[in-house]
Amino acid sequence: MITTATRTFVRPVAARFAVRRFAAPAGSASLHTLPDLPYAYNALEPHIAEDIMKLHHQKHHQAYVTGLNAAEESYSKTSSPKDRIKLQAALKFNGGGHINHSLFWKNLAPANAGGGKLESGPLKSAIEADFGSVDAFIKKINSTTAAVQGSGWGWLGYNPDTKKLEVVTTPNQDPLLSHTPIIGIDIWEHAFYLQYKNVKADYLNAIWNVINWKEAESRFLEASKQ
Amino acid sequence: MAAAATGQHKLPDLPYPYDALEPFISRQIMELHHKKHHQTYVNALNAAEVAYAKASTPKERIALQQALKFNGGGHINHSLFWVNLAPAASEGKGSGGALKDGPLKSAIIETFGSFDSFKKEFNTTTAGIQGSGWGWLGVNPQTKRLEITTTANQDPLLTHAPVIGVDVWEHAFYLQYLNVKADYLNAIWNVINFDEAEKRYLEAVGK
Predict the structure, then answer these.
(1) Fewer CB within 10 A of the end CB, N or C, for chain A?
(2) Does B199 touch chain A (CB under 8 A)?
(3) Rounded distance, CA A32 to CA A96, Å?
(4) Does A151 touch chain B (CB under 8 A)?
(5) What is the ipTM of this complex?
(6) Cα(A222)–Cα(A226) distance, rounded to whole angstroms?
(7) Could you tell me if B70 and B142 lie in one domain?
(8) What region holds the Manganese/iron superoxide dismutase N-terminal domain (chain B) (predicted)?
(9) What fold characterizes domain A112-225?
């Protein structure tokens, strides 16, 4: 909850890559910033085109950051429950957009940085245990994600209650709350349309060449030790 | 859209060639939008209707509701959309974008103050959709007044009689306008078929 007596702007520079640390210290309104991509705009070619990466990062994600900052500022200026409830949609949409895209850039990687390569290890074993095989998992996440009716995200998530990996989706920019995100796939049309047009299935096949499995495993290890 | 026998819906032809709405909506978008996106809703609606006819329990039928709503709504919405667009009068190609004096124009001015105020409110509301959906000018069936409203995803407009619908799914504009939704929403008013809109308006208010 953001309450302000005086407002100080704390720029969470160290938090730019630590996507969990979005919370502002109590008593301040902090400006969220667009995280840099961990690779060049053309680094995911030919699987995700440079022009998509540029628009997606510099325009779409930036708009969520800008919108989130504006919504948080409005929220900090009011103490009325009704006004705050009115702001929830803007906070959820833009906050979710910022969270989801920040996770997304990090769970992609160029081939020369391990993109697309799932080594033997705890994540691979867990996928095989919970889905039968990596291929079966990919088939499931792709068909589930393709079936999102509108805009949204497909996720491999870790269910903290059952301790299992599950495929889930979220609509629009809703963040994944029911599971710990391991891999997220943006299925808003802006994520693929310039390159793949209406052929969503081709995008969903191609993206597995640039999934950052090392990041995914790191998230899995952190989630599964709790 | 006439009721069809189960699973017999067809993609309606466009009332104009694919390039007719240039330069406001590109030929490339119109082709994909009609031949791929709308066709997919038609195919999936037919499949869902066939499955529904075979279903024998309430639970099975309820399980099919989502497919019927999404694809049925997609078919309804896009069928309305093609007909409420027309080649631009400003390009000398047709009557698109030309709102003549008459009951619809009067109702817009009476309700919103001016056509420009209406357009501004419509575009702001439609651009504000958080995800995929449609912006609508509709007639409130109780008050018979014009109102601006939106529907999410492919939900059909049920609360109002549709007068004008604008698709803001990204596939409707992205290839031409990229992320600049506002430019698409400004441009589309050049190709809105106000003759069709007025016909719908008159039917909705019972004249």
Answers:
(1) N
(2) no
(3) 13
(4) yes
(5) 0.92
(6) 7
(7) no
(8) 8-86
(9) minor pseudopilin epsh fold (3.55.40)
Do B45 and B136 belong together in one domain?
Answer: no
**What is the C-alpha radius of gyration for chain B, rounded to an integer number of angstroms?**
17
**pLDDT tens digits, one per residue of A163-216:** 999 999 999 999 999 999 999 999 999 999 999 999 999 999 999 999 999 999
Note down the domain range covering B60.
27-86
Contact between A186 and A90 under an 8 Å Cβ cutoff? The reply is no
Per residue in B96-127, pLDDT (tens digit) is: 999 999 999 999 999 999 999 999 999 999 99
pLDDT tens for A16-27 read 444 444 555 444
Beta-strand pair A180-186/A152-159: antiparallel
Question: B184: which chain A residues are within 8 Å (Cβ-Cβ)?
Answer: none
Are the CB atoms for B41 and B75 separated by under 8 Å? yes
Burial classification of residue B139, based on how many CB atoms lie within 10 Å of its CB (0-12 exposed, 13-18 middle, 19 or more buried): buried
Contacts of B130 in chain A (CB under 8 A): 89, 93, 172-173
The secondary structure of A31-86 as a DSSP string is: PP-PPPPSS-TTTTTTTS-HHHHHHIIIIIIHHHHHHHHHHHHHHHH---HHHHHH
Determine how many CB atoms are found less than 10 A away from the CB of residue A11.
11
Closest CA to B198 of B110, B99, B123, B111: B99
The listed CATH number (1.10.287.990, 1.10.10.60, 1.10.10.10, 3.90.550.10) that belongs to domain A4-38+48-109: 1.10.287.990
Q: How far apart are CA A226 and CA A192, in angstroms?
A: 35
Give residue-wise pLDDT tens across range A73-99. 999 999 899 999 999 999 999 999 999
Looking at chain A, which residues constitute the CATH 1.10.287.990 domain(s)?
A: 4-38+48-109
